[in-house]
Amino acid sequence: QLYSSSLDGTVKLWDFTDGILIKTFTVGCKLLALYAHASFEDSVFVIIPKSGERDSFQLVSVKLTKAADQEIEAKELSVVLDGVDKSPKHTAFGREGEYVASVKDLELQVYFFKRKQVNRFSLSATSRKGGNNRFTCIACHPKEDCIATGHGDGKIRLWRNFYHNKEYTFSTLHWHHDIVMDLAFSVEGTSLLSGGIESVLVQWHNGSDCKKDFLPRLGSAIECISVSSDGTSYCTSHTDNRITIISSNLRFSRSIQGLIKARDVKTGLVVDPRTKALVLNGEPGHLQFYCLQTDKQLYSLDIVQQEYIHQEGLKQIDLVKVAFSAQGKWLATVEEREDDTDLELQLKLWVYDEETQSFKLNTRINMPHEDHITAMCFRDTDEVEDNSAMLVTASKDCLFKAWVIVEDTDPEAQQSVSWSCDFVGSYHNYQATNCCFSEDGSLLAVSFEETVTVWDSFMWDLKCTFCHPPGKIRNICFGRLTCSKYLIGATDHGFLCCWNLLSCALEWSAQLNVLVLQPDPLSEHIAAVSWISKDSSLFVFKPNDPRPVCIQRNLCKDKIQFAVFVPRDIPETTGSEKHLWLRRSQIFFLTNTQELITLSTKSPEERLTPSSKQLVVEESLPMTPFSLLLGKHRHQKSQEDVDLGKVVLHSHPNQDSPAVKELLHTPAHVLPSASFLCPIFINSLLISKENKSAEEVADEVEMESKDSEDGSDEERDIAEPEQDDQQPMDFWGETACKLSKSEERELRKIRKMDYSWISSF
Question: Which domains are delineated in the chain?
Answer without folding.
Answer: 1-82 (2.40.10), 87-257 (2.130.10.10), 484-601 (2.130.10.10)
